[in-house]
Give the backbone structure.
Amino acid sequence: MSNAYKIAVIPGDGTGPEVIREGLKVLDAASEKFGFKYETKTFDFSGARYLKTGKLVDDSDVNELKKYAAIYLGAVGDPNVKPGIIETGVLLKLRFALDQYINLCPVKLYSSDYCPLKEKLPEDIDFVVVRENSEGLYKGMGEFKDKGTKDEVAIQISYNTRKGVERCLRYAFEFTRKRNRKKKLTLCGKTNVLTYAWDLWQRTFNEIAKDYPDVTTDYAHVDATTMWFVKNPEWFDVIVTDNMFGDIITDLGAMIQGGMGIAAGGNINPQGVSMFEPIGGSAPKYTGQSIINPLAAICAGSMMLDTLGEPKAAKAIEDAVIKIVRTKLKSLAAGKMGYSTEQVGNLVVENL
Ligand code: IPM
Ligand code: MN
């Protein structure tokens, strides 16, 4: 199996294992149909493991994961662990240590039945957010002064390097060109208030734009961007933004494409190991009931195959998802699909 893709699987917590199981089922069917080989190894990084052993992700884990072609992640997070520990110790640790400096979130409406916006059609909602995934406010820089006193000051720094901003913007320009739709790239920022960080972003954007005369450039403040997502999502093709703004606008993006049940994302290191995940989290309240929608995980699997170099299989999975979303499912929400988690996975396989 030397030509097999080595995939590291992290099912994680809550509904993560349930959705990953369906994702792997679809991957298996796609490999037979499209004739590619893969092998998986499961890693138990999770909130549950942390509660049992105190272990998060350490440098030796990272070195092990570097041997893989991709990582397929369900969700990590356990309500019994204080917020911040699993997020920084597992998810952000992997993103940073593997230098997955892009977070790619396609926002695509598969059926207007599931869009909360009135009168929007699938052709109106079809854009991609390129989120910087290694810097900004996520860098974890800052300090307390006089903690616990009336004079306390808490400082959280947005850290933006020219190199970090530039590699993200170049990726976004290349991506826009390759996507070849409207060929329009919108920089989403806050140049009117965050006058250091966004000055750097805007200057770098303008400079790089000169290398891409075929790409139309645009700028929108982040607050206005959220307004356009609701009012005129059809204006967007590719949006590039920093880590914090990207985190916020991609949840709104997920909602206008039909909700967390369908939204997938990729943490990309273009030269290294990328990690694909449904963006909805571990959804503890739905765990173990087979009611969670596995389509986001299945779509993340499709993104993974595209990145690995299997675009035909990736497209076939997406087409099967579109088909069942349009003709079978009653809803994309957990418990309302008209099918169990497992049955939705089976439907995708049957329509491949
Ligand atoms: C996401 C998530 C993470 C983030 C959390 C879980 C740390 O919301 O992938 O968007 O903020 O990046
Ligand atoms: Mn988020």
